[in-house]
Amino acid sequence: MGIRPGRPRGLARALHRERGGGTRAAPPDDLDEYSRFGACALEFETIGLFPSYQSVVEHQRLEFVDDGEEERYLDWLAGLGMAAEAQDSWLLGWPDEIQGDVQIECAQVAGGDPEDWRLLLQVNSVEDAGMMWGDAGMLYFMIRADDLAARRFDRVWLTLQCY
Q: Residue 144: pLDDT band by 50, 70, 90 thresholds?
């Protein structure tokens, strides 16, 4: 992934490479120096994700019958580690929003219905790699569901949220 300011389809472009080779891909030659970051070790694991509280409320995915039920949902999310400050980066699933629903944000800026937008990649600030998004924020690489299914990664939109 590279941050490419001024691109007409948003501020980012996702570069997809088929599995294999085992070598690190070089960044594109035309990628500005300030958009290049240090390498980070990755560990992959499968985790279960659920919509954030913000997403549930803004998309009306659940309707709470009273404040007690709403509080139990927040406690349940906290028990899963999803109600605290965002701390991880991940591929696919539900975004862990900091300031508001990124699906709605993408629909407002790029068009379409918020339900059409999917998280492709969420990247947390990693100070050791020189990646600090605002005040310890998060980058969200979003893509429409049909573009993801067709592997049209050139249609990715980037949004930033920070504390």
A: very high
